[in-house]
Structures are given as structure tokens and as C-alpha cells.
Amino acid sequence: MTQKDFDTGGRRLGGHGRSLVMGILNVTPDSFSDGGRFNEVERAVAQALRMAEEGADIIDIGAESTRPGHEPVSAATEIARLSPVLEALRGRINCPISVDTMKAPVAEAALRIGATIINDVWAFSRDPRLAPLAAEQGAAIVLMHNRETIDPTIDIVEDMLRFLYTALKRALDAGVPQEKITLDPGIGFGKTLEQNLEALISISKLKELGCAVLVGASRKSMIGKIIPSETDERLPGTIALHTAAILKGADVIRVHDVKEAVQASRVADRLRGL
């Protein structure tokens, strides 16, 4: 299956069948895996530089946890956490920076400082100002499937396609070019273990919507449901899921462990090309 390029807001990544690696940087005290590790500016900047050196194609910075049961924070709090990190990274890394937020004021502030991608776990359904903001600023976007509650009785693939088709139309109608849009099946969000697996193996159906596809399964609880493991013990399971995703056609993987993911993705890319 042919990989798609991703225009990251002025810089086109991909090509030659190579998948992309997006490194996760949470500048929060409460994210599920690395909360509190990088919520000081110097440590966050050092981690971003390390991931860039290890081969990350994109750095995704989040200032509000989206783990199940998280405590929402204000836009002002997000901006206060993000701004000094983005300012400190100006001119120090070459890869594009993504901001993981569902709030237009946060995205606007991040774009002003240097981010070029908006990654929204609710696919612009929570804040209608995000789509026109992305179009106006020329930002790239990641739209993720999500659900308020888990319902094991539904057809999760049908639900995912319907949700993301609506989100895609919202973005296109606002003027965001299709080549700047990436879709995310939302592994670990509002799904049972079986539904997560179904979503992952249905990437080919998602790609029929005509956009690049991102998969983020890094250290997710579904791995611990398959084989009991603590969050920081899930690198092998993460690599297995992301390799499967690439072989199914994923264009981007979102990871905590960049060095290992780069190696695994290059091998998976070669296998996909056979």
C-alpha cells in the first residue's frame, strides 16, 4: 500500500514509501506514561532535542493530559506550559512541531511561536474555531476518532469512519487542503481491546478517505490487557502494534521511544515494499 506524503504546514514529509515518526513530549504533571518527567522547561527542551537527534520527523507537544479520567485544564494553563518550551526550541530543531490541543486559543498561541501542526484528539468537534484557524494559518492538522464512552456492541470501524468523515468535511469546508490533513483511528480512546484491534487492522478502509493516517499505540493500556505489564514495560508491544500499523498502511506513528521506533519503522517499511 502506497504511503502518503504529509504537508506539515509548509514542509512536505514522507515520500519514497517511508513512514514518519512523531515523538511525544508531554509537558504535563499527569500524563499516563511520562507525566511529571518533562514539565520543567529545561528538561522538556532537552527531551525534544534528544528525540530530534534520534530521528523524529515531528515533535508533538502536549500541555493537557488526555488519559482516561484526566482533569481538564484551562487554555491559559496550557499556554503557560507550552509557550516557554516553544520559545526555547526556536531555531534549535529542524523537524516540525505539533501542538496536541483541542482549544483554539492554545493552538493559535503555539502557531504564533513556531508550531505548524494542530493535533486534536476530538477532531475539531469540541472547538469549532480550530478548523478556520488552521486554514487561515496554513497549519497541518491531525484529526482523531474519539468516543465519550465505550460501547462494546457497536461496529467501531463504521463509527470511526463516520466520525472522521464528518471531521474531514469540516476541515475541508473551512479551507484546509487535503494534503495537510492526517487521520488517526484513536487507539485507546473510547474502545474495548477488541475494538482497538479492529480499528488498527482497518487502516486500509480509513485511507480510502484520501488522507495520510497516523497511529499512536505507544505504551497504551491495550498492551497490558493482552499481556500484563506496567506502562514503562510496553516497548515490545508498542513496536509490534506500530509495525502492524505500518504494514497495514499507516503513514505516521506517534511514539515515546523514538530511537527504537525509527529502527522498527525502517524495517517495517522494507517489509511493506516487498
What this model shows, in words?
The chain is built from ten helices and ten strands. Helix 5 links the parallel strand 7 (about 140-145) and strand 8 (about 180-185). It is of the alpha/beta class. It is globular. Helix 1 packs across helix 2, helix 2 (about 75-90) packs parallel to helix 3 (about 105-115) and helix 4 crosses helix 5 (about 155-175). The strands form two sheets. Strands 3-4-5-6-7-8-9-10 form an eight-stranded parallel barrel, surrounded by five helices. It has a two-stranded antiparallel sheet with strand order 1-2. It has one domain: Dihydropteroate synthase-like (TIM Barrel, Alpha-Beta Barrel). Helix content is about 40%, strand content about 15%.
Could you write a compact summary of the structure shown?
By secondary structure, the chain is of the alpha/beta class. It has helices at 41-53, 75-89, 104-113, 130-137, 156-174, 193-201, 203-207, 221-226, 235-248, 258-272, and strands spanning 6-7, 12-13, 20-26, 58-62, 97-100, 117-120, 140-144, 181-184, 212-215, 252-255. It has one domain: TIM Barrel.
